[in-house]
Amino acid sequence: MAGPWITELEIRTVEDAMRNGWYERAYWYCEAFQVEFAKYHNRRYALMTPNCTTAIHLLLTALGVEEGDEVIVPECTWIASAAPINYLRATPVFCDIDPENWCLDPQSVAQAITPRTKAIIAVDLFGNMPLMNELVTLAEQHGIHLIEDSAEALGSSYHGVRAGRFGVGSVFSFHRTKTLVTGEGGMLLLDDDKLFDRCSVLRDHGRRPGTTTYLNEEVTYKYMPFNVQAAIGYAQFQRLDELVGKKRWIWQCYKERLADIGGLTFNAEPNGVLNSVWITALVFDPSHGLGKAEAMKRLSDLGIPSRPFFYPLSSLPAYPGAGVTYRSRNPHAYDISSRGINLPGALNLTESQIDEVCDGIRKILRP
Ligand SMILES: Cc1ncc(COP(=O)(O)O)c(C=O)c1O
Asked: Which domains, ranges and CATH numbers included, belong to the chain?
């Protein structure tokens, strides 16, 4: 279903980190990876973190998000986009998704902004990009921070600007299921000096980087990266084009092989967007009469793995009762999610395995 593409380069690099990455070189790969990652995204600063969830938590904390604040997130995303809002006892406000790109819909955001709104987290879902110009304008007009959750979009771009370049800060995930993996791992990108300084202190128990005293300035988090983890990321990053190329190839294969079946919708690539397609999603037409649970069950009976399109966050047991408010406010999220699944997207997928999945999809549509 999901998994990385590891070559001798990653193995050699990790071996080097294991043999030499201690003492004065204990953060060598963390620093090298951060510098290259920031440069690639045309950002001034990068901070590697244990995962992407902690990167979001760091940034929201540094922006002063606290109890009583509201933070806007799209309904359809992994819960990690929203959970750090709850960690800080602020309130996530769920907005609808755009029916074409499946990302945060600016119109829904405009209707949800209140005097308590502190930030908007725009998620680049499955590698696609939201209508960024509209979101940037909305955030500026209302004096709200825009955060780009690019966890799933490394290698995507929007009108020539890389995913991760938008807003006050952006975050990436290197979870073992992502395009670039470190097992667990994340990155926070920033431009502002003060915000970078604040996040650096928050990341290491209230210590300023490079401080040799043990006089902690305040009680904060411990979200430091590990050199061996960064070594995997550093090596994988040299191969980014190859990794994204394979993801896009998988998506193209599914689309070509199933092109003759009417009513199937795959990840879009709107004009001006380069979609790095972390995972291929397939949304059935209402006329197929196939909900996602039934589709997944029928595929599983054929031995084919799949995953559900993200459930609307407000429908999850984690947010009890929220669906009562949000179901009617966010109709696209509830509708598209109910008909959508993710297809296998592992980076070791072969053409014949893709053929099997496609045969399976034909079978479940004519059981
Ligand atoms: C959109 C999105 N945001 C955040 C995360 C959190 O990433 P991590 O698992 O590295 O904490 C993920 C992935 O898992 C994600 O898909």
From this structure: 8-238 (3.40.640.10), 240-365 (3.90.1150.10)
- Using a cut of 0.85, tell me whether the model's pTM lies above it: yes
Ligand 1 centroid to Cα of residue 301, in Å, is 29
| Best mutation site among 47, 48, 49, 52 for ligand 1 pocket (most ligand atoms within 8 Å of CB) | 52
No. of H helices and E strands in the chain?
13, 14
pLDDT digits (tens, 9 = 90+) for 94-138: 999 999 999 999 999 999 999 999 999 999 999 999 999 999 999
For residue 219, what are the contacts with CB-CB under 8 A and spacing of at least 6? 205, 206
- Cα 304 from Cα 340, distance rounded (Å): 16
Predicted confidence (pLDDT) at residue 212 exceeds the cutoff of 90: no
Q: Which residues line ligand 1 (CB under 6 A)?
A: 51-53, 77-78, 80-81, 123, 149, 151-152, 173, 175, 186
Q: Which of 1, 78, 188, 221 to mutate to test the pocket of ligand 1 (most atoms within 8 A of CB)?
A: 78
Q: Residue 55 C-alpha to ligand 1 middle, in angstroms?
A: 10
Tokens 């896009």, residue located: 248
Percent of the chain with pLDDT over 90: 97
Residue 210: predicted pLDDT: 81
**β-strand pairing of 161-162 with 157-158:** antiparallel
d(CA 337, CA 331): 10
pLDDT digits over 306-354, tens only?
A: 999 999 999 999 999 999 999 999 999 999 999 999 999 999 999 999 9
Residue position matching structure tokens 């080097």: 16
Q: In this structure, which amino acid lies at residue 164?
A: G
